[in-house]
Structures are given as C-alpha cells and as structure tokens.
Amino acid sequence: MGRRVLLEVEVECGADGTPARFSRAGRVCSGLKTVESWRESGCWWDGEPVRTVFRVRDREGRVFELHRLGASLFPLEGTTERASRWLLYRIED
Q1: First to last CA, the chain
Q2: What integer is the mean pLDDT of 83-91?
Q3: Region of 42 on the Ramachandran plot (φ > 0 left; ψ -120 to 50 alpha; else beta)
Q4: Is-contact 41 50, C-beta < 8 A?
C-alpha cells in the first residue's frame, strides 16, 4: 500500500542520470536503485509540466516515486536536459 506525499525534495543523480539520493525534512535517503522509470506528458490543458517518473528502492527496501518536473519529452540533440524541480510523489509501504 502506498501514500501520496506531494513534497518538493532535493535530488542528487548518479552518472547515469537516475536518482542516487534525495533529502526531505532534514533526512537523507541514499543508495537508491531505480526499479522502473517512464515519462508522462501531464495535463497540458491544465498547464501541468512534462515529468519523468522514477520508482526507486532504498537500502531498507522502501519504495519511493520521484517525479522530475519540466523535463522535455524530446530534448534537442547536443543539449543537456536540466529539470529545476523534483517531487516526492508517493511512498510505498
């Protein structure tokens, strides 16, 4: 079972661009392994940004769903993709 959190968090990514650690409420979750990832276009008619979603597992086995907001679905060739915000969307028990 999971619960929605909807909290903005600071995320550090590894060399492959996937979340390696994040901090929330003064606590750091590190040693993250990506379980799966996908892209969502958002409800453009409501002004929602494109997001890349990562389901990650920490060392204790907890699963978190992190959303990277504002990333382009089709980045221009030769450019680096930067997202300004990350959202901790869900924690699964």
Answers
A1: 6
A2: 84
A3: left
A4: yes
**CB-hemisphere CA count at 13 Å for 43?**
2
Q: Give the pTM.
A: 0.79
Phi and psi at residue 46, to the nearest 5°: -100, 5
Answer for the pair 89, 12: CB distance below 8 angstroms, yes or no: no
Distance CA 67, CA 69 (A): 6
For residue 58, give the nearest of 15, 91, 84 by alpha carbon.
91
Q: Which tens digits make up the pLDDT trace of 16-41? A: 989 999 998 888 999 999 999 999 88
